[in-house]
Design brief:
The complex is a heterodimer of chains A (about 100) and B (about 475). Chain A is mainly alpha-helical and about 100 residues long. Chain A has 3 helices and 2 strands, in the order αααββ. Chain B has a domain of about 220 residues: Amidase signature (AS) domain (Amidase signature (AS) enzymes). The chains are: A mainly alpha (about 100), B alpha/beta (about 475).
Chain lengths: ~100, ~475
């Protein structure tokens, strides 16, 4: 399948980063080759086969809805951020 | 492995390891060395020993920690700019368990950023050099850990294996490397790559050490809902495996099967996959596989030829499922809560964008973009869903294979360690490195890389022993049969 320049830019947008001109060129070429490689899966007959997402087929492992002691305190977690004010993480303006 | 006692102190063991780490500094193995912390821990253990107190099974044993395991000792970087400055307040369960037994972390080891790679060249700290040839790659992504053990700096090292990241560097450097059954060891506190494939394992110099580490690290963890109920320490012990081992005269002692999953015969059979013995694999490795098969035959084991035609699609399925999970897991790195934050951002949207643009390595970006491609509407059915169905076929193929044999012996990778720079600019060539290792992660089965001689040029060769899910202990035990050719 054909991968156009706009497709590469769109994928970068979906990924929440932007690419330099050089990256559009080089990653674009790489992505084309990778997609070509993974497309060989077309050959495999998977009619009527159920998908596997987790090898032990675990689903919804529940625990009781209670507040357990956590490994890190609020202060420790806030200390990891660049800017903090009144127990909240400070970021640049949203709007 | 050597543990501390009254004559061989923990301080001595740790000092020796630190000296060796300094001696081999130009191999670029470590991203952080914790000299002060390690010596302090060693002194504590020596004091306990002097007082005659109980010490753990790993008392004073120096080890290296792959730099994607969280602990408050040093920054956890995953060799990626975007985690710059991150010192974790939490400790990975695996680290807690090892250190509760007295193991002492002397440093954190280099990897491909976020474990994306097969050579440790995709690291923001630069590549780690191969232990046997400084012009060659260490393998990856756990390259630093493999070389730390191969150069005898530490007794063991931790690793993560999503598609071969323990087994391939182990084979490139001539040490043992285990990717356990999916869910055997808790992933809590380890930087997530592809959650349905990620496994925690180890590098060691012997099967005995591997068994000891697994008996400590495996088991249910309420902090990781995908961990399996404890099974490792309730596996058949050595004597039962010995009982089902063929004698040198070829007669077979009968006992309960070593490996679960409905085995009828008590004679261990080793499978060899027909499709893998072909031109793709380096002749040195094919010869090593043949040699080991002959050796096993001479000991009375039966070699069974297996047809596993779906395995050739494992790599394509893997490079769909893995990037899809990577794209999801790496969406958390946004510069807001921890790690690197781009300074030049005017609003929140550009803070995300700039942080991720500057913070990720090219290979991280490739995988995130491929992941978003295979998950996007219009392509989901053709790629992601198709790969998930292929995964079922691959899993079934392993299940079928294990009705015909107890273990499978295969190459780990198509070639021995390659030259630095040889594949780093060709992602597909790099992905092909994972051809023989990824199917185990898709199926959730354990694999142990075992040293199997050298190439004509003196490079280590590794082979992998594969077993059914939960057969980890038997697999490690059986690997001893491959020794002393």
């Amino acid at each position: 399948m054909e991968i156009k320049r706009e497709d590469i830019i769109h994928l970068a947008e979906l990924s929440d980063f932007s690419l330099s001109e050089g990256e559009i060129e080089s990653l674009g070429k790489d992505l084309k080759n990778i997609i070509q490689y993974i497309s060989q899966l077309d050959e495999l007959d998977t009619d009527g086969v159920e998908p596997t997402y987790q090898v032990f087929e675990m689903e919804n492992v529940w625990r009781d809805d209670e507040i357990l002691p956590q490994d890190a305190t609020r202060e420790e977690l806030l200390a990891l951020t660049r800017e903090e004010k009144d127990n909240q993480i400070k970021v640049p303006k949203v709007l | 492995m050597k543990t501390a006692n009254k004559t061989m102190t923990a301080t001595r063991l740790v000092k020796d390891a630190l000296d060796k780490a300094k001696h081999f500094a130009d191999y670029n193995i470590f991203t952080f060395i914790d000299e002060e912390g390690a010596l302090k821990r060693a002194a504590e253990i020596d004091a306990k020993i002097a007082r005659g107190e109980e010490v753990g099974r790993l008392a004073g044993v120096p080890y290296a920690l792959k730099d994607n395991f969280l602990s408050p000792a040093g920054q956890t970087t995953a060799s990626a700019h975007i985690l710059e400055g991150f010192v974790s307040p939490v400790t990975a369960t695996a680290v807690e368990k090892l250190e509760a037994e007295g193991a002492i972390m002397i440093g954190r080891t280099n990897l491909d950023a976020f474990a994306h790679g097969s050579s440790t060249e995709n690291s923001c700290f630069g590549p780690t050099l191969n232990a046997h040839d400084r012009e060659r790659v260490a393998g990856g992504s756990s390259g630093g850990s493999a070389v730390a053990v191969a150069l005898d700096i530490v007794e063991f090292a931790t690793g993560t294996d999503t598609g071969g990241s323990i087994r391939q560097p182990a084979s490139f450097n001539g040490v043992y490397g285990l990717k356990p059954t999916y869910g055997a060891v808790s992933r809590y506190g380890v930087v997530a790559m592809a959650s349905s494939l990620d496994c925690i394992g180890f590098f060691t110099k012997s099967p005995e050490d591997m068994d000891l580490l697994m008996s400590i690290a495996a088991g249910k963890d309420p902090k990781d809902m995908t961990t399996l109920p404890d099974y490792y320490n309730s596996q058949p012990n050595d004597s039962r495996l010995a009982a089902s081992r063929p004698s040198s005269r070829g007669s077979v002692a009968h006992s309960a099967p070593v490996v679960a999953d409905g085995l009828e015969s008590s004679k261990l059979r080793v499978g060899v996959i027909k499709d893998f013995d072909n031109e793709v694999v380096d002749k040195n490795i094919r010869d090593a596989l043949k040699r080991k098969c002959e050796f096993l035959k001479s000991k009375g084991y039966e070699i069974v030829e297996l047809e596993m035609p779906t395995l050739k699609y494992a790599l394509a399925a893997y490079y769909i499922i893995q990037p899809a999970e990577v794209a999801s897991n790496l969406s958390r790195y946004d510069g807001v809560r921890y790690g690197f934050r781009s300074e030049k951002s005017k609003d929140l949207e550009s803070l995300y964008d700039n942080t991720r643009s500057e913070g990720f390595m090219p290979e991280n970006k490739r995988r995130i973009m491929i992941g978003n491609f295979v998950l996007s509407s219009g392509f989901y059915d053709a790629y992601f869903l198709k790969a998930a169905k292929a995964r079922t076929l691959i899993r079934n193929e392993y299940e079928k294979a294990f009705t015909k044999c107890d273990f499978i012996l295969t190459p780990v990778s198509p070639n021995p360690a390659f030259k630095l720079g040889e594949k780093v600019n060709d992602p597909v060539a790099m992905y092909l490195e994972d051809l023989m290792s990824v199917s185990l992660n898709l199926a959730g089965v354990p694999g142990l890389a075992v040293p199997a001689g050298e190439t004509a040029d003196g490079l280590p060769i590794g082979l992998q022993l594969v077993g059914p899910r939960r057969s980890d202990k038997a697999l490690i035990e059986f690997s001893k049969e491959l020794q002393n050719e």
